[in-house]
């Protein structure tokens, strides 16, 4: 009862020699196939390096081309030698020159002894594999592929396109159901002998000669005809990136690989001295019996996610989403327009209620009013208006990214710089609360002349209307609450409760009282005065001029909830 | 023809026109570098030592005797096999020091740094002559390259991986480091790790803008923008760089290493939303000698195309300012930079 190894190698032969002698020293037979493309000097050096070992054999050399039949020919020749020259082996393990054994051969032997008739080979039907390379899943088996994909890409692509246009469809030989899987397998002698003695084999070979990447389908398909007990996974640990290229293991993966409990891993970086030293010279003692790859799976799926999706709201030299993906910030934040006009102490109140800091008008014309009045905020963001206005979107994205984990709230007003409004409206992370027309309150309380107030009011109303218009657009993705000043005053507490619930839905805060409002006696009269002067402050809502001293009667406020 | 058709046709025309312009620009820059090749004279030419797979480092230096010992040691340890350096008429020990290094080939010139595109003409010639087929790192003496896993993997590991991904360029941004306290009040001795003196940086004050003509990202920000360029954001220094390229003799850097032609080499950003592997260049400009050097550089006017506009910048530095603030971030390691979103492992785990 034993296992023999076939190594297919095309580069870094000094490592191949190391691995082969390591295996041979553990009394395991090894058959090496060295690609014909390898220079003769390297090949002879390897032969002399491994010459002292009885159990290392060399298979006839083929010139292997990625994705082509030649690799299967090499594998078949080497397997033939293995089965013939070493009659006592029960399993044949196929590995590459960049594989490394992670556990002693004795462990593998013991493991295989427990499953003497089992074939360890990943073998799944084309419908079940998510691998995408050029969208050629089923067509691998139904088109002709005489041209190498790596060297003659144009010819390859054109020939595929031509066959598609002509509607060519190869006939899959009777008795075969195409299966795919990792190239690296461990098959039992019985299965291999059954495959090689199959009278239909020449017919199958003729078919597979023109299948694309037969090393991922030849044995995977034939084993389904002859294998009796198939474990559809590979004993070699290997991980692939989104383009189907294998991840590479380095020195700093030593612990991770050791903990995996797998028998072999690929692919190993040839310069990873520590890795080779660790696993070839001092095999780790008594690991668990069954491979456990959870930690590695997690690490590499995180890598895949990072490579494909990155971190939302982060802009960096590597991450710059092109136009098809909407620009957004890193986390949810809240914008309050009009609140501090009505409640002079709104910032302090909000900060106390939600338990976080609240910025002032960060888009004010003079400078960015950060929480605490600091000149430079976290991350080194300066309060300079010129730097901010040079790229307001980036300013906001930076602010949100720098403070991720801490909800950002800031005040906004139609008197602020308005370039950012478009971005705010389109950002799905923005929660925007507006009391429209509240800008009239500071005007009402100012001592300026009516003419000045009127000019200012026209300007503010226009800016606010433009912002509201953007919030109402179909393209707006932000969460929006809008009240007119009159609506809001009907029931301020309920309106504020709506906002607070929206900010922290999982941490309910029951508001006892709303903050103190500015004195409003004579406000309706003031609005009427503006109207009399020919300007209509329609965004404030209705303030009937009859009553001057009391607030409108309490009635349920109706927030307009957009999305 | 509909309106949309006309528009797409115009934009296609414009794209072709831009591509043609960039092509012409590339060959103009290359021929310019070839014309100026005689401006540099070899002092010690050890380029015969260069072997085919070696990683090379190109740099123009002037009066950098204090920084060079650590600069060379650091990049040697990361895997640079040969340094090709142009000495722009140093008045300190720079030339003797470099000439005595076994893996440095040194050229000398007394021509203008500014008129040679800030040294790029000279380096372009050296890259043309010696860089073809090599991975070439182009840095200033005050720059240290940090890439993911740099503490456990060599530059050869990185370039090998980039090769396996058919990538020919590696992008990075510059991170300006500064000390806690006045710039001039620090102590630094040659050979010391500058990070022991300059430990702080601004991590979240960096702005990105796409430049369609060169198809690269224009990155600005950091402490210099915060302190010195309040009133002129458009003049604040560029931080984006593509310092590591598998060179071909037809490639050329456009302005410093901020952008490179042909344009596809600038595609070091993510294609859709993900991030490919990228690095950071630690910028050790603010060692104590900066205060005195600023006085000289203000007079020499060699560092900016329009140097007068940068007088207030030099004045600011000559005042020996404190750049540090309570919001400053202390440098730890590359993992910290990745958490902060300044570099990324991408798919390189």
Automatic annotation (TrEMBL), chain A:
A cellular-component GO term for this protein: membrane
One MF annotation (Gene Ontology) recorded for this entry: metal ion binding
Pfam families attached to this UniProt entry: Branch (PF02485), DUF5927 (PF19349)
Gene Ontology terms describing biological process: chondroitin sulfate proteoglycan biosynthetic process; heparan sulfate proteoglycan biosynthetic process
Residue ranges occupied by any DUF5927 domain in the UniProt entry: 266-563
Subcellular location: Endoplasmic reticulum membrane; Golgi apparatus membrane
Keywords, sorted A to Z: Disulfide bond, Endoplasmic reticulum, Glycoprotein, Glycosyltransferase, Golgi apparatus, Membrane, Metal-binding, Signal-anchor, Transferase, Transmembrane, Transmembrane helix
Membrane topology value: Single-pass type II membrane protein
Major location category of this protein: endoplasmic reticulum
Top-level taxon in the UniProt lineage: Bacteria
Name of the protein: Peptide O-xylosyltransferase
Organism: Rhodovulum imhoffii
TrEMBL record, chain B:
Source domain of life: Bacteria
SUPFAM superfamilies on file: Nucleotide-diphospho-sugar transferases (SSF53448)
Keywords associated with the record: Transferase
Gene Ontology molecular function terms on file: transferase activity
UniProt entry tagged with the keyword Transferase: yes
Pfam families given in the database record: Glyco_tranf_2_4
Name of protein: Glycosyl transferase family 2
């Amino acid at each position: 009862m034993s296992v023999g190894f076939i190594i297919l190698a095309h580069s870094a032969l000094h490592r191949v020699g190391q691995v082969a002698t390591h295996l041979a020293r553990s009394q395991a037979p090894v058959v090496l196939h060295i690609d014909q493309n390898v220079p003769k000097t390297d090949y002879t050096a390897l032969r002399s390096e491994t010459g002292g070992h009885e159990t290392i054999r060399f298979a006839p050399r083929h010139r292997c081309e990625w994705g082509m039949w030649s690799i299967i020919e090499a594998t078949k020749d080497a397997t033939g030698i293995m089965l013939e020259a070493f009659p006592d082996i029960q399993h044949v393990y196929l590995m590459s020159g960049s594989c490394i054994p992670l556990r002693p051969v004795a462990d593998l032997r013991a493991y295989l002894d427990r499953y003497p008739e089992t074939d360890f080979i990943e073998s799944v039907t084309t419908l079940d594999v998510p691998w995408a390379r050029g969208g050629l899943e089923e067509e691998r088996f139904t088109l002709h592929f005489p041209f190498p994909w790596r060297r003659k890409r144009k010819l390859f692509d054109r020939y595929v396109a031509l066959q598609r246009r002509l509607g060519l469809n190869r006939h899959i030989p009777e008795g075969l159901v195409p299966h795919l899987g990792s190239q690296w397998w461990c098959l039992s002698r019985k299965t291999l002998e059954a495959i090689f003695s199959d009278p239909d084999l020449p017919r199958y070979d003729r078919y597979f000669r023109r299948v694309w990447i037969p090393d991922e389908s030849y044995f995977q398909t034939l084993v389904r005809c002859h294998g009796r007990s198939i474990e559809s996974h590979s004993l070699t640990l290997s991980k692939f990136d989104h383009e189907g290229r294998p991840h590479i293991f380095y020195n700093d993966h030593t612990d991770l690989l050791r903990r995996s409990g797998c028998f072999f891993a690929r692919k190993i970086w040839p310069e990873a001295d520590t890795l080779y030293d660790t696993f070839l010279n001092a095999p780790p003692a008594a690991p668990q019996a069954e491979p456990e790859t959870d930690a590695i799976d997690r690490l590499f799926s995180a890598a895949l996610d990072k490579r494909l999706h990155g971190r939302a709201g982060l802009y960096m030299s590597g991450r710059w989403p092109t136009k098809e993906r909407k620009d957004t910030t890193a986390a949810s934040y809240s914008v309050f327009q009009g609140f501090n006009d009505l409640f002079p102490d709104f910032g302090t109140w909000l900060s106390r209620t939600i338990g976080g800091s609240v910025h002032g008008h960060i888009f004010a014309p003079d400078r960015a009013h950060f929480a605490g009045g600091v000149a430079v905020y976290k991350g080194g963001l300066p309060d300079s208006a010129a730097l901010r206005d040079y790229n307001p979107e980036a300013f906001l994205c930076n602010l949100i990214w720098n403070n991720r984990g801490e909800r950002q709230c800031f005040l906004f007003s139609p008197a602020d710089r308005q370039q950012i409004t478009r971005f705010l409206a389109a950002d799905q992370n923005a929660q925007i609360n507006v009391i429209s027309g509240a800008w009239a309150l500071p005007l009402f309380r100012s001592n300026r002349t009516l003419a000045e107030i009127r000019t200012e009011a026209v300007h503010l109303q226009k800016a606010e209307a433009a912002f509201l218009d953007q919030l109402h657009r179909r393209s707006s993705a932000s969460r929006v609450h809008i009240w007119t000043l009159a609506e809001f005053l009907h029931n301020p507490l309920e309106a504020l409760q709506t906002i607070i619930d929206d900010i922290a839905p999982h941490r309910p805060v029951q508001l006892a009282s709303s903050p103190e409002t500015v004195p409003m006696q004579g406000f309706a009269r003031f609005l009427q005065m503006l109207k009399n002067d020919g300007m209509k402050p329609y965004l404030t809502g209705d303030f009937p001029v009859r009553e001057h001293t009391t607030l409108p009667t309490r009635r349920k406020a109706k927030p307009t909830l957009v999305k | 023809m509909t309106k949309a058709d006309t528009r797409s046709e115009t934009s296609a025309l414009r794209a072709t026109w831009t591509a043609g312009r960039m092509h012409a620009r590339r060959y103009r820059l290359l021929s310019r570098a070839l014309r100026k090749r005689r401006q540099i004279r070899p002092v010690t030419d050890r380029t015969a030592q260069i072997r085919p797979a070696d990683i090379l480092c190109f740099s123009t230096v002037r009066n950098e005797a204090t920084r060079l010992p650590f600069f060379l040691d650091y990049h040697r340890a990361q895997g640079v096999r040969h340094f090709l350096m142009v000495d722009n008429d140093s008045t300190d020990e720079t030339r003797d020091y470099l000439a005595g290094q076994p893996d440095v080939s040194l050229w000398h010139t007394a021509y203008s740094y500014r008129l040679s595109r800030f040294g790029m003409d000279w380096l372009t010639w050296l890259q043309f002559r010696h860089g073809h087929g090599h991975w070439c790192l182009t840095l200033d003496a005050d720059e240290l390259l940090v890439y993911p896993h740099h503490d456990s993997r060599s530059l050869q590991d990185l370039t090998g991986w980039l090769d396996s991904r058919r990538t020919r360029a590696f992008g990075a941004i510059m991170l300006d480091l500064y000390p806690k306290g006045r710039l001039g009040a620090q102590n630094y001795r040659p050979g010391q790790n500058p990070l022991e003196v300059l430990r702080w940086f601004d991590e979240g004050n960096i702005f990105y803008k796409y430049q369609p003509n060169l198809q690269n990202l224009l990155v600005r920000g950091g402490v210099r923008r915060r302190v010195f360029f309040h009133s002129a954001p458009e003049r604040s220094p560029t931080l984006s760089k593509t310092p590591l390229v598998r060179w071909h003799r037809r490639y050329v850097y456009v302005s410093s290493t901020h952008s490179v032609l042909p344009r596809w080499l600038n595609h070091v950003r993510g294609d859709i939303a993900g991030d490919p592997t990228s690095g950071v260049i630690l910028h050790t400009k603010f060692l104590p000698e900066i205060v005195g050097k600023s006085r000289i550089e203000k007079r020499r006017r060699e560092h900016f195309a329009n140097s007068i506009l940068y007088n207030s910048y030099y004045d600011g530095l000559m005042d020996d300012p404190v750049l540090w603030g309570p919001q400053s971030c202390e440098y730890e390691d590359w993992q910290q930079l990745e958490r902060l979103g300044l570099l990324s492992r991408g798919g390189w785990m």
